[in-house]
Amino acid sequence: MRNERKIIQDSTLGVEALLFNGIQQEFPNHWHEYYVIGLMEAGTRQFTCQNTCYIVEAGDLILIPPNAAHRCQQLTEEKLVYRNIHLTPENMAVQVQKIFNTQLTPHFPEPVIRQVKEKEEFHAVHQLLLSDRGDEFEKQERFTCLLHDLLVQYADFTHEQTDPVSNKAAAAKAYIDQHYAEKLSLSELSDGLGMNQYVLIRQFTKAYGLSPFQYLSTVRISAAKKRLEAQEAIAEVAFLTGFSDQSHFTRIFKSLIGVTPKAYQTIYQEDGVRTYE
Q1: How far apart are CA 130 and CA 125, in angstroms?
Q2: Secondary structure string (H, E, C) spanning 26-94
Q3: What keywords does the record list, in alphabetical order (predicted)?
Q4: Over the range 95-117, which residues count as b (16 or more CB within 10 Å of their CB) and which as e?
């Protein structure tokens, strides 16, 4: 099985779709600003989401809400075959309004669903997305029906209660959000808050599921994605989002997103699926 990565941005549905076929890459702790709906088709992985560990296998569905810290790694020699679809919170809200005529926000109480009955339809819809051909009407219809079924079966639309965040952890997050493009240090962050560095790391990680550095990396990558979508030069994007150089940027981007910045940028240049080994 060859190492293959496919990615497409579907402008009609407003989603990204990715296929990782035959890879063994480990993804470190990170988060995304969007919903991730993924299907394992081969391989066995240890998947951790919001500090809870799962073993995921072929046939399992993965449901990751926005800003949920998660990571995964390979457990066997069998290589990964994994499909996923990304929906921004704004697009999810539009889809929910269309499907259920409600403005409630869906929450997935369980990030892993074992041996989902919708796996064959998920595969078929994902193939339609990646094929970049066929009837748009069919694609829209099948995607809408699939999302309806997944939300009905696995989503909770009630208000999610969250633990209170300490004021200093929140202040650290706000500082990183504002200054992510600058050269930051743990000592600068902790001194500015008047607290011990280790205590800051513990409070921040407890509140957000990521260490301050992991959070900084994901904020930078999130900002970089928007600039890549706008077709800014990759070297300039690296500089403007706080990375030491383009090589460092490329390494971190691929470790979190699964494809290089150049590969990601091309899907916003023109319609069509992109395949990378």
Answers
A1: 9
A2: CEEEECCCCEEEEEEEECCEEEEECCEEEEECCCCEEEECCCCCEEEEECCCCCEEEEEEEECHHHHHH
A3: Activator, DNA-binding, Transcription, Transcription regulation
A4: bbeeeeeeeebbebeebbbeebe
Rg, the chain, Cα only:
19
Predicted confidence at residue 237, as pLDDT, reads 97
Q: What span, in angstroms and rounded, lies between the C-alpha atoms of 266 and 272? A: 9
Helices of type H across the chain: 89-100, 119-131, 136-154, 167-179, 186-193, 197-208, 212-229, 234-240, 246-257, 261-266
Residue 185 structure tokens: 């240090």
Given a contact cutoff of 8 angstroms between Cβ atoms, the answer to whether 200 and 193 are in contact is yes
The whole-model pTM stands at: 0.86
- Both tokens of 28, joined, read 């470190």
Cβ contacts of residue 115 below 8 Å, gap of 6+? 59, 60
Q: Which of 59, 79, 89, 63 lies closest to 151 in space, CA to CA?
A: 63
Q: What digits encode the pLDDT tens for the residues 259-277?
A: 999 999 998 886 555 655 5
Q: What is the pLDDT of residues 101-142, one digit of tens each?
A: 888 899 999 999 999 999 999 999 999 999 866 678 889 999
